Amino acid sequence: MIGILSFCLSVLENDADRRMLAFIHDNYLGHMERTALSILGSQSDAEDAVQNAFLQIIRHFEKIYSIPCEDLPFWIVSIVRNEARTILRKRNRTAPFEDWSSVTAVAEDTSGYRELVALVKALPEGYRAVLEMKVLLGYSDREIAEHLGISETAVSTRASRARALLRKMMEEGEQS
Amino acid sequence: MTEQELDRAIRRLLIEAERSEEPEDGADVPFVPSAHYRRSLRAMCRNPLKWARERQRPVWKRLAQRAAMFLLAGSIGLAGLTAAVPSARAAVAAWAEEWYETHVVFRYNGESSADAFREFEISALPEGFVQTERFEVAGIVAETYMDKAGNVLLFEYVYMQDGSLTAIDIDHVTVERIVVNGISGQFFKDENPEHSNVITWTDKENKYQFFIWGCFDKEEMLSMAQSVR
Fold first, then answer.
1. Cβ atoms within 10 Å of A51's Cβ, excluding its own
2. What pTM, to 2 d.p., does this model score?
3. Is some CB atom of chain A closer than 8 A to the CB atom of B31?
């Protein structure tokens, strides 16, 4: 963790990076706060989630430049959502029920792009969180495991299952 | 479809899913930022790297540093003021408790005792807790205790001399009056169960203020407080 942060430190020494962080703060803070509060319902927890999200943004700052501008707010909000869910999981000390069979049943009726988006939204929380952290946010398996309170093996299993399903759906969609 | 193409497609889908779930402006309960949170974000904007380093430190280390620094800064700050402005000394009561929106301040102005500084200990520590750190400077002692599970307990006491002040952050806490061995004090309960609660009481006769910080309930903290010798 120290190593990663040290790297980010050098990145953030750059004036352009600092301006980017200020831009995120000035333009998306309200959005981040509302998202955290709507998930957690507690002001104090929401403040923690937003600050944890900023910590993740700083740690993964280099990722920002690979995100198209118009997608940046959604990338940021997905970080907040994941930090909020992590707090929720710790607070409740329970793992959500991950019903994979219901997703595969929904997948049988999936054909177009909108249905694919709906399928992603219907993924069990733990699967979608793994995909978001891995593909969208660039977290390592260890970081994801720490966030979700599961083993690195479980992270890998969930990621490969979700990827395999989405690949199958997309390839079938291309053929039809 | 290659792995990279698949990743790009999944990224697109995740963004689309996120976009379609955006809460509408004004649809939620209003977010009312605490003063502590606002200060923290201002610190991040000033120096994001320092803020990130600080933020990723374990909670107990941040707590220990914040408590100790607050006490030290306060003690030196008002001592300097009253030394420089004699009228300030006469204008304030010997013991004062000032309640603000975000914090409460305890002040002492009056005679500084020539008695030797005493040491205290919690004789009824919770099971498994051992001392891991001790910090002592200018009449302030802060001792950290930990158990094997990583739970943390902080015991602090301050020798209140002329001009000393201490403070406790009261954002998101409820306050209850308590009595420790016949001495009145307060129990500050944080609304977040993962944040430390605080119990404090002041022995005005001997001019010591005591604090115990930790994730314990009132009865546990009161029991520890009553065992301080």
1. 19
2. 0.53
3. yes
